[in-house]
Structure to design on (954 residues):
């Protein structure tokens, strides 16, 4: 029995995520992370082998319904989207019921329905991108198809199918190849697909359909009708903007990083052994928050791609520097890598008490100063305006780095003193560790400090990126 | 002018990737990483604003063609895939040219064409997955559509459209909602889409089409024809197995990690200042190889999803433990996070010479022992058979850890000795650094050692995961 972990990161693209390291004898689990930072456990989708097929199937359906209910409760915006899709499909299916409309498109209303089914995406940007792709590709492929058919008919009835088949082979192969290229893949994948299909449909339909021009006209107009319904419903009926989603994803990622770092440092240096279980679980949620950041790259990329298609909305105008969010996202991930390394090094151990006195204040100070900068940056991103406090916070952070370096120097003297202490002296402070432990702990503390300093360096890069972003956002208005 | 970085990781899903940190005054670039580990630079796709629209467009097309040519040269398998798609489309378009075939499906040959265009994927697994989804969804939705239409007609001509519209709204909304759920998204996304479309098509076509049963029969059979052509072409004509792709992706990721770690440690501790430029560039390629590993999660997930649909092929049978590759992939990424933190800490600096003498041998030994384990694991993954050498390699690695710890202890004494040395004594060994430098260098070396030890811990987890994988693979045969 395998179980997997899913994180849903405020987007329409939920996907299979890094399973947490399964500990010895512990099964993996279905887990959904919701935007509010909480995550819930659903074992229901992953029932063990049920006694019979029918019982098993019912249990699975029941589990799926439970999951769906909780998911719907936590993400009402997605439920609204489903109703929007239903509404758009009812609207487009009027082309079947109303005779003038049906005859107007020559009975080809199915293409309009298909367009709505395929092109209606969760965010406005994605819908616009797909609709533009689809309309343009249909138009271009229709024109090319008519051209190829016209050329083929010049060569007589025998050669016609051969020429058409050859053109289908060449154009389909070429378009399929283009779909592999990253730049085409990122922006025009759907367009290339529709181009291939429409080209084949139009060019070889000429063999069967009397008026190819009218046929193509109907195909293009039904696609145009479908895309218009998608775009209008998407924009004017509870719109979900990819830009907004991206904007809040980046902010929540920054907050998660800050929470994780604070949590990990406090866990290592603090003495909250007597904290109650509920508090511990909440803090564990925070500790692993940085993992969501590690996993958010593909979501960010698609949101950036889509946000660029969106018209001005809310605080964002059409020329908002969306692409800069990619760089910011990459920097946040590199920050998260440091936290991951840090959490690996300090997990399952506690700093010995005698070192804690010396170190904890200064380490906690540095980490909290660094996360204060990050939290200040969240405000900068939110308002897209430079913050007057940020310089102060940066200075505090730098002075904390200096303090930590001084403490390290002091430690390098104190430590060798410590190895000369008698064992019983350790026992008082360090609860009876052998005299190897202080040395390991010192190495750990030095590493912790060093990683914290590296985190500070990465924070500075983030500050720079956020300032650039805020500057560009302001000047683009 | 923005430029982005793409890594293509031996799959049909090339995607936008983490841009490397752009240094001061350095523009970002289009870069493609090819399976052979080399990456090439393409500035051509990212021309600055050209003087005129036509010139600009031609330059862009030229750039795209150049990119395409190089891409095609480096990935012949993808070119073959394009020809396969062209061939399958020629085959399916025979349904237009051959009259008995055309009449056999009632002029609905377009659905077969559409099926081939949409469902023919790069790997066999993806094609089978999409085809099964499509056929099942079409069949189920067709049956449901006929049922709903039958019920609606019982209520008389006035109520019929209302009941049909209501059913379209409810079923489309529900199916759209299901698509958000991670388990459905991962396996049945395409099926849900096709279900919605076929249901609407069948249920509301009853309003226009005289014989709904025949209409549905044609829809189902054309889809079945299309999927059969896809599956047969995909399997019997130069097949690309998702399982193979995944298998070699994991191996190449392990090799990249080993190369990166060796490279970074050698760069920091070695003295290759006189290496020539070509060698340096090749080594820089290796240094950042671990970034490909950080980015390979979504590729791995989709390959695992697809590999599970594939019949036995090569060394893999149907019950090959594909899901275990996900865990292994996650462990490799956590290894890569450590390398990222390490590279951040040691970049742009060199260990001072007097510390190098003391440390470099033991650090290089540990890192090379750790990468030797990783390289041995590549062989285990490749052959799916436990290696007799692995225990020996593990022992060597553990003894290297012990040596490093001893060296650290020795350093802790020597270091305080060093701070008591006179400045000129430093100058001899450390090329005139101020006496802060040795201290910073010591912290760096301690961090390096600590991260190396953490990497060893993560290597041990990887060993465990690979052994489990090999064991399951052997017992599943």
């Amino acid at each position: 029995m395998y179980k997997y972990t899913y994180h849903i990161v405020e987007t329409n693209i939920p996907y299979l995520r890094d399973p947490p390291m399964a500990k010895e004898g512990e099964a993996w689990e279905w887990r959904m992370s919701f935007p509010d930072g909480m995550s819930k456990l659903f074992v229901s989708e992953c029932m063990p082998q049920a006694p019979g097929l029918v019982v098993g199937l019912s249990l699975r359906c029941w589990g799926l319904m439970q999951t769906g209910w909780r998911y719907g409760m936590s993400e009402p915006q997605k439920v609204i989207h489903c109703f929007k899709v239903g509404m758009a499909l009812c609207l487009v299916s009027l082309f079947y019921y109303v005779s003038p409309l049906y005859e107007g498109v020559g009975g080809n209303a199915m293409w309009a329905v298909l367009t709505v089914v395929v092109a209606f995406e969760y965010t406005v940007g994605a819908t616009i991108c797909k609709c533009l792709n689809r309309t343009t590709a249909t138009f271009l492929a229709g024109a090319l198809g008519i051209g190829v058919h016209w050329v083929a008919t010049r060569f007589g009835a025998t050669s016609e199918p051969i020429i058409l088949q050859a053109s289908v082979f060449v154009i389909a192969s070429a378009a399929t190849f283009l779909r592999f290229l990253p730049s085409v893949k990122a922006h025009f994948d759907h367009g290339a697909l529709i181009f291939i299909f429409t080209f084949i449909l139009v060019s070889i339909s000429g063999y069967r359909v009397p008026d190819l021009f009218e046929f193509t006209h109907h195909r293009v107009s039904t696609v145009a009708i479908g895309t218009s319904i998608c775009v209008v419903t998407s924009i004017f009926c509870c719109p979900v903007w990819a830009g907004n989603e991206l904007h809040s994803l980046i902010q929540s990622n920054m907050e998660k990083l800050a929470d994780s770092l604070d949590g990990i440092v406090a866990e290592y240096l603090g003495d909250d052994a007597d904290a109650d279980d509920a508090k511990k679980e909440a803090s564990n949620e925070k500790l692993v928050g940085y993992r969501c950041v590690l996993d958010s790259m593909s979501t960010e990329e698609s949101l950036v791609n889509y946000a660029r298609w969106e018209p001005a909305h809310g605080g964002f105008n059409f020329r908002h520097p969306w692409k800069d969010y990619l760089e910011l996202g990459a920097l946040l991930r590199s920050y998260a890598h440091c936290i991951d390394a840090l959490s690996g090094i300090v997990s399952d151990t506690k700093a010995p008490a005698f070192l804690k006195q010396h170190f904890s204040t200064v380490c906690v100070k540095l980490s909290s100063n660094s996360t204060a900068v990050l939290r200040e940056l969240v405000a900068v991103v939110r308002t897209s305006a430079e913050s007057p406090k940020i310089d102060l916070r940066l200075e505090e952070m730098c002075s904390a780095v200096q303090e930590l370096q001084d403490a390290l120097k002091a430690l390098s003297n104190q430590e060798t003193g410590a190895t000369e202490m008698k064992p019983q002296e350790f026992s008082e402070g360090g609860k009876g560790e052998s005299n190897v432990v202080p040395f390991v702990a010192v190495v750990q503390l030095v590493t912790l400090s060093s990683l914290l300093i590296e985190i500070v360096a990465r924070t500075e890069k983030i500050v720079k990126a956020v300032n650039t972003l805020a500057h560009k956002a302001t000047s683009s208005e």
User: Anything to note?
Assistant: The two ends of chain A are 54 Å apart (CA to CA). Residues 437-475 of chain A form the longest helix (39 residues). The longest strand of chain A covers residues 5-7.
